[in-house]
Amino acid sequence: MILPTGLPVPSDDGACDHLPGARMPALSLPSTGGDAFRVDLVPGGAERLVLYAYPRTGRPGEDPLVPDWDLIPGARGCTPESCAFRDHAGELRAAGATVAGLSTQDTAYQREAAERLRLPFPLLSDASLELTGALGLPTTRVAGTTLLRRLTLVIRGGVVEHCFYPVFPPDGHAAQVLAWLRDHR
């Protein structure tokens, strides 16, 4: 839950420069909430959808995909990031946003994390890479697995209004998103 010091900071390689202003595809992704989740529609009662993408959550006691996981810029911190969005969920709602997490992990794996971390929002699975491909989201391959690089989309009216990329440190990112939402009411 606490990030180690000295993690490598990801750099902005321009991989998300095309996203602000992009129309979200009319796709439904499997969700830990049990229903398919439309990524182009902001759920009722909210003005914006905050969709944060992360490489993968781990499980307590499991080894990372590779021994040098902490040396991959932006890889470490998925659980602290999700917990920060959980802890700020009420404030994010008050700022007009609903939240969902996104990874390429399957829904069963994500469901364990959502329950263990008591997340009040769904985690969405893009295991088929359908959304990733449609939007050209940045990925990385680790141990034969395609993972999303950490980013956050703010979606309003079916369009990407803002993109946070790269995201670092992940445990402070929810507060950064909240500040942006408050400044852009």
Task: Report what the structure shows.
The protein has 185 residues and is of the alpha/beta class. It has a single domain, classed as Glutaredoxin. The mean pLDDT is 95. The longest helix is centred in the C-terminal third of the chain and has 11 residues. A hairpin with a 7-residue loop joins β1 and β2. The chain is built from five helices and nine strands.
Which CATH C-level class is it? Alpha Beta
Order of helices and strands: EEEHHEHEHEEEEH
- Rough shape? globular
What fraction strand?
15-25%
Largest sheet: 5 strands, mixed
Structure summarized in a few sentences:
The chain is α/β, with parallel strands linked by helices. Helices cover 23% and strands 22% of the residues. The protein has helices at residues 78-87, 89-94, 107-116, 130-135, 173-183; strands at residues 28-29, 37-38, 48-53, 97-103, 123-125, 139-142, 145-148, 151-156, 159-164.
Secondary-structure blueprint of this entry?
Elements: E1 28-29, E2 37-38, E3 48-53, H1 78-87, H2 89-94, E4 97-103, H3 107-116, E5 123-125, H4 130-135, E6 139-142, E7 145-148, E8 151-156, E9 159-164, H5 173-183
Parallel strand pairs: 3-4, 4-5
Antiparallel strand pairs: 1-2, 3-8, 6-7, 8-9
Essential attributes:
five-stranded mixed sheet; Glutaredoxin; 9 strands; 5 helices; alpha/beta; single chain; 185 residues; two-stranded antiparallel ribbon
